[in-house]
Amino acid sequence: MTASERRGVRNGEWSDPSETRAVDPESAVVVDGVRKRFGSGPEAVTAVDDVSFAIERGSVVGLLGPNGAGKTTLIKCILGMVLPDEGAVSIHGHDVSAEPRRAYAHVDAMLEGARNDYWRLTVRENLRYFATISGVDPDSVTARHDRLLDQLDLADKADEPVRKLSRGMKQKVSLASVLATESDVVFLDEPTLGLDVESSLTLRRELRRIVEARDLTVVLSSHDMDVIEDVCDRVIIMSEGRVVADDTVSNLLHRSGTGTYRVTSPDLDREVIDALEARFDVTDVERRDGRTHVEVRVDSDGFYRLVDTLRENRVTIDGVTSVARDLESVFVELTDRTNGTERGGSR
Ligand SMILES: Nc1ncnc2c1ncn2[C@@H]1O[C@H](COP(=O)(O)OP(=O)(O)OP(=O)(O)O)[C@@H](O)[C@H]1O
User: Fold this and answer.
1) Would 344 be classed as within a structural domain?
2) Calpha distance 149→155 (Å, rounded)
3) Which one of 58, 95, 298, 311 has the fewest CB atoms closer than 10 angstroms to its CB?
4) For position 174, which CATH number holds?
């Protein structure tokens, strides 16, 4: 280990690791006040802005955010591929600046949906290769590799060179290569990118099964909300470099306060719809069977203001139902809000 490796970086200055805050060795990953700026002067971009969180061992955490939110930069800071300007990262209790070898000993990653698999080697040879370079005797994990190939529907391709496989299969080989090692913490960036629906479903199901069987910690970034909703225990949503939500999938879906309501009425004319649009976030208007159905997204006290507005306009209400939320609508709501485009009935 070099002298600089023995030192931690905090608040933009090199410091003695003994000065760094004690981290919970029980956490798989601890990110503490990480900040990263690119460039300088008016052109500077703060890609990651004071981000902190801890990830429990054996959990699957989704990292979400619109393009440019800072997800990749944050993952690269955690993996030591980008040096943060401020803050500290530790993995399994080891500060990545002070003890990089120990911190990264059990970490693997698949970035941007791919990994440098060896296309001339067969699928099984790739798995053995990556197990070997991670310090595992490949003969001792043959049974586990067979199981992995089975789980990912790759068993009948095990002895084919990777170059002969379809794009989706290559992607599964990438994931299998990550899981073939003895890593305890894996970072998967867009693992289902380009997969067909069936392969994506298989991969999600098997990933979840593998996580439970091995007590694996996974940090998964994806633009596909269904993947996140299916696989993750918890979701961290970033927008403009900051964390705007950090909660379990179920809490995010059932957050009290905000919601979308569907109002059905025989006399919702254009004038009333204009009045609703002026005060609320009207997400859908549909005329069917002589009635009008309007979907309105509101915040915590917005529901009562919505009902009051309908009454003021003497609207006959046939029904008001709550529309089930999915992670996508929660995501849009949270990231719209931080981008200053919130409507949600607060006008
Ligand atoms: N090497 C770099 N030099 C300058 N700016 C950068 C660099 N890397 C990232 N950025 C900027 O930092 C911000 C965050 O980018 P980042 O790639 O981390 O976002 P992201 O959430 O991963 O986006 P995406 O979903 O599009 O991959 C963006 O404004 C980006 O342009």
Assistant:
1) no
2) 5
3) 311
4) 3.40.50.300
How far, in Å, is the centroid of ligand 1 from the Cα of 128?
A: 34
pTM exceeds 0.90, yes or no: no
Q: 193 with 264, same domain?
A: no
248 and 298 co-located in one domain = no
Judge if 284 and 199 occupy the same domain.
no
Q: Report the pLDDT value the prediction gives residue 113, as an integer from 0 to 100.
A: 57
8-17, 255-264, 288-297 — which is least confidently predicted? 8-17
Task: Compute the chain's Rg from CA coordinates.
Answer: 24
Q: Which pair of tokens denotes residue 89?
A: 């990262």
- Ligand 1 mean position to 4 CA, how many Å? 27
- Answer yes or no: is pLDDT of 10 > 70: no
pLDDT above 50 for 13? no
Shared-domain flag, residues 76 and 30: yes
pLDDT at 6: 30
* Residues of the domain holding 268: 255-324
Residue 1 lies in a domain: no
282 shares a domain with 140: no
State if residue 65 touches ligand 1 by the CB under 6 angstroms criterion. Answer: yes
Q: How confident is the model at residue 253 (pLDDT cuts 50, 70, 90)?
A: confident
State whether the beta carbon of 100 lies less than 6 angstroms from ligand 1: no
Report CA(77)–ligand 1 centroid distance (Å).
12
* Closest among 264, 274, 272 to 294, alpha carbons compared: 264
Domain count, the chain: 2
